[in-house]
Structure formats: structure tokens, C-alpha cells
Amino acid sequence: MLWIIYSSKYDEEADNPAKRMLAEAVNQGIESELLYFNYFRVDGNNLYYKDNIVENFPDVAFLRCNEIWLAEFLESKNVRVINNSYSIKHCKDKLLTHQIVDELGYKGIKTVTLGNKKYKELVKLFGPVFILKIRDGLQGKDIYLIENKKQFKSIVKTIDKNNFLAQEYIITSYGRDVRLYFVGDQFIAACERRNENSFISNIAQGGLTYEVSLKKSDIDKAREIKTDLQGEIITIDFVYGENELIFCEANTNAGFQSFAYLGYDMRKIFMNYIKESEKKRAQN
Q: Is the pTM of this model over 0.85?
């Protein structure tokens, strides 16, 4: 049994990404159920769904969300969770991600916690232009390009400074980044996301997508990062430095619209991976 878990924002929609994922699972002969994380709650050692105690757990849960508490509870019931709680935690928290990449010895965007740091401190670290971004952000939201002190002061008044990071601004990557998608041990493809009108490249913020070919060394670098993050279905993002790709972030619940535009049937790839990897687990 496979649980596919999404946000309940899709519950009332007749046709939506959650139901299309379920349809693909059924099409591949996988016994599946679509559930919404908002309807779960934990009380002691019990898990409830829509106020009914959960008695039977699945073999696998595919989380299209970032709910660490739910992943941890399911793991405590010996459910295989994709992606696991460690991976979700260390990708969701961008500072933790960068610490892991630093330990691997790869170059990442210079990143520090914002906290109570003053403008002068950040200029000394990064130069006169730098980035503020929320620590656990998604879809290019809550990211600010800081170009002067007045702008900095205005923005820090409106945000939770303890939940924000400051990062160097890589001018050579303005409006562009590279996203690599991995499913299990397989590298699926890489795309460049490009936005001519903003420094933010995300498709959700108006970016366009183009398939790119990368050097094997860059793919291997991304693979090692994803392995250390324990990601099964995961994206690794780089930005363009002057002469190299620089690590930006990783996501365990990344959208795949960019790859769909390029002709990749990601739902089919996901479900085939889950089906085949479960067959291998059953044989061991």
C-alpha cells in the first residue's frame, strides 16, 4: 500500500496535481490512497486522520509536503517515507543544507543567519549588494535583493530576522539557475531556469525553462550532495559563478513543471521508481 500525501488545498478541486499523481499510481497497478497532511494529527502514540484513529499503515508514504513531524511518526511505525524526515529537515532548513555542503568541501553561496546583524556587518561579508531569504522558503517567495541601507532597514522591520538568512549575491547568475532532478540513484535531467525580468529564476515567479547539458563532474557533485542529504526524490540547484557552478539549495518537495515543459513525465518516473524499488525491497 502506498500513501500519497499532499496539502488539503487540493481536496476540493476536481482535477489537481494530487489526483493526477494518484491516477498515475493506479495506472501502474500500485495499491494507493490519496491523503492530505492537514487532516492528520498525533496524540501520544496514536495518529488520527479526520479525527479517526489510524489502525493500518502503508508500506510506503510519498510525501509531497515538508511535514517533518508526520514523516517521523510514520517512520516510527516502520513505514518507508519518501523523502525521509532527515532529508526533509536538512533540505527545508537552508542553513543546515549549506553546512552539509560545506562539510563535503563543495563551494556554496556564502550564507549566514541574519539575526541581529547590522547592515555594515553584512556589507563587509558580502559587498554592497546581497540577498535576504527566508530560512525555509519555497517557490522563490520571501527573497529580497538588498542594494542599499535604506532598503535593508525597511525590509528587516517586516520580517522575522531569526528565520532569515543573508547570502552573497552572485551577479553572474542574475535571473538564472540550474536544477538537477534525481530519482533514486538515477539522474533524470538538468534544466536552466531563466527570468529576464527578475533576479529570481523560479517558474512560480515568471521564469522560463531550458534543458541543459552539464559536465559529469557537476552531476557527480550534485549526486554526492543528494546522497549526504539522504534524498530519494530530490532536486539540487546551482547558480552560475564566473567559472563554475556554485551550490544554491536542495528540495525534497520540488515542483516538476520545469521538467514537464521539457517532455519528462515526472509522475510516471516517480511511480515507476516506487514500484520497482518496492519489488527489490520485497526480495531482500
A: yes
